[in-house]
């Protein structure tokens, strides 16, 4: 069981400052302590002195802006990936920063963040540089989504549990997206023979989506939950659905002890092409 702590990685960059602000508000919402973590500098020398000063200034600012949040400051000499993965093992939520758009119009996600997102034991949120979370409550005009969750019906409980909690904390609606496609090889079958089975598959997917979401509607009655069943490429459809969202939530499957830890294609697309904060929820961290 993870300790009830929000951990945020900080190195003084604009993206890490955005992560600290997001994490501070999250800790305040949850009524949890915040751990400010810096890693990768030797215990002596100019870099260590600089890191200590960065942490001191940041802690002072947080004491003014979020005085109700208990704060712990930790500076470790371990490499950043190792330190952050260890933090994910002891915390309930890990928050990391991400830079802005790169030359190919995708968000720049460093190798440290990608390694940690693929291997960390607790849910992790990637926050964009210079992102500012609007005030709590429904989006302006009620037209934009609040929290968006992408689900695979075989592994939906952890994502839905996390997404419902986040929507409830923010007094926002939750929109759940599930994508599907016809069986591999059906593109080679005559159209007239595909239509009826495809309709049956769509109906079965819709029923599965309702069955997956209904328990969470009962558990979180204050959260308005809507669903979309989309046909097509999961990564593309989910990134489109998350336009304007306050938070996008996707899952990360446990692939067994022999498989190399990695993000799946949907999570990979989300962290590179969604402007909003993105939460990666490992399988096995939810209640169901």
UniProtKB/TrEMBL annotation:
<dbReference type="Pfam" id="PF00582">
    <property type="entry name" value="Usp"/>
</dbReference>
<feature type="domain" description="UspA">
    <location>
        <begin position="5"/>
        <end position="128"/>
    </location>
</feature>
<feature type="domain" description="UspA">
    <location>
        <begin position="148"/>
        <end position="282"/>
    </location>
</feature>
<comment type="similarity">
    <text>Belongs to the universal stress protein A family.</text>
</comment>
<dbReference type="InterPro" id="IPR014729">
    <property type="entry name" value="Rossmann-like_a/b/a_fold"/>
</dbReference>
<dbReference type="InterPro" id="IPR006015">
    <property type="entry name" value="Universal_stress_UspA"/>
</dbReference>
<protein>
    <submittedName>
        <fullName>Nucleotide-binding universal stress protein, UspA family</fullName>
    </submittedName>
</protein>
<dbReference type="InterPro" id="IPR006016">
    <property type="entry name" value="UspA"/>
</dbReference>
């Amino acid at each position: 069981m993870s300790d009830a702590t929000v951990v945020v990685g900080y190195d003084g960059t604009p993206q890490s400052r955005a992560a600290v602000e997001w994490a501070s508000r999250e800790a305040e919402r949850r009524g949890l302590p915040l751990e400010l973590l810096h890693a990768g500098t030797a215990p002596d020398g100019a870099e260590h002195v600089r890191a200590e000063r960065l942490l001191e200034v940041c802690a002072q600012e947080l004491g003014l802006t979020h005085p109700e949040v208990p704060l712990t400051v930790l500076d470790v000499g371990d490499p950043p990936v190792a330190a952050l993965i260890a933090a994910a093992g002891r915390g309930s939520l890990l928050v990391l920063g991400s830079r802005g758009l790169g030359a190919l119009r995708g968000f720049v996600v460093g190798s440290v963040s990608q390694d940690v997102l693929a291997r960390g034991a607790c849910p992790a949120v990637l926050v964009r540089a210079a992102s500012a979370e609007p005030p709590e409550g429904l989006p302006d005009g009620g037209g934009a989504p609040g929290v968006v969750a992408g689900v695979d019906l075989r592994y939906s409980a952890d994502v839905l549990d996390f997404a419902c909690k986040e929507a409830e904390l923010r007094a926002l609606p939750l929109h759940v997206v599930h994508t599907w496609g016809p069986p591999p090889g059906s593109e080679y079958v005559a159209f007239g023979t595909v239509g009826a089975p495809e309709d049956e598959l769509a109906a079965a997917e819709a029923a599965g989506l309702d069955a997956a979401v209904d328990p969470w509607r009962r558990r979180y009655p204050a959260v308005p939950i809507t669903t979309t069943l989309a046909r097509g490429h999961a990564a593309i459809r989910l990134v489109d659905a998350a336009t304007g969202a306050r938070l996008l939530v996707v899952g990360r499957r446990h692939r067994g002890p022999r498989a190399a830890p990695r993000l799946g294609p949907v999570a990979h697309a989300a962290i590179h092409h969604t402007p909003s904060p993105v939460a990666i929820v490992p399988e096995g961290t939810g209640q169901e």
